[in-house]
Amino acid sequence: MSIRTAVLTVSDRASRGERPDVAGPALVELITEQGWVVVETAVVPDERLVIERTLTGWCDRVQPGGRLDLILTTGGTGFAPRDVTPEATMAVIQRIAPGIAEAMRMESLKITPHAMLSRGVAGIRGRTLIVNLPGSPKAAVENLQVVLPVIPHAIELLRETSTAEEGHSFKDKAQ
């Protein structure tokens, strides 16, 4: 079973073409290494309504092949006044998944004290899991690697897969 994924880069400068989006492609590379399918990618400015509309549209739209299982955002999770990705995410999710963000911050603190400045959140809209990641390509990949082991099981639960309650991840079943 493949996980249908989207990556949303939130960056004023990248959205204006003033700098390349590096974090989004780094996440796409890691996702495809997992055997997951990247269905959508986009770069948007640090504008709350634009972020909200993109997330809502991606979650609510049935795409060829089905709905998205996972949306990863990168950028806009810090303390800068225009960093509004967590607020936009909180506005569109229906249920929060605090353990995901807590785990990422906890592991990141082992690398840098700046992890305390991350305001990223995770939550669920419908059957789609949304996870906010930092804007730095290195930090985005490191944070995603922290939660990679639990994402397949989370998706099984959201899909209400018949074996989801057994507590096995996709990786566990392959062994």
Describe this entry's structure for a reader.
- With 175 residues, this protein is an alpha/beta fold.
- The chain has a single domain (4-174), classed as 3-Layer(aba) Sandwich (Molybdenum Cofactor Biosythetic Enzyme, Chain A), CATH 3.40.980.10.
- It is 42% helix and 18% strand.
- The chain has eight helices and six strands.
- Strands 2-1-3-6-5-4 form a six-stranded mixed beta sheet, with helices on both faces.
- Strand 5 and strand 6 (128-133) form a beta hairpin.
- Helix 3 runs parallel beside helix 4 and helix 5 crosses helix 6 (137-147).
- The radius of gyration is 15 Å and the shape is globular.
- Mean pLDDT is 93; it is low at 169-175.
Q: How much strand?
A: 15-25%
Strand order of the largest sheet: 2-1-3-6-5-4
Order of helices and strands: EHHEHEHEHEEHHH
Question: Mean pLDDT, as a whole number?
Answer: 93
Number of helices: 8
Shape field:
globular
* CATH topology group: Molybdenum Cofactor Biosythetic Enzyme, Chain A
Q: Largest sheet, if any?
A: 6 strands, mixed
The CATH top-level class label: Alpha Beta
Termini separation (Å)?
Answer: 15 Å
- Strands, total number: 6
CATH superfamily grouping: MoaB/Mog-like domain
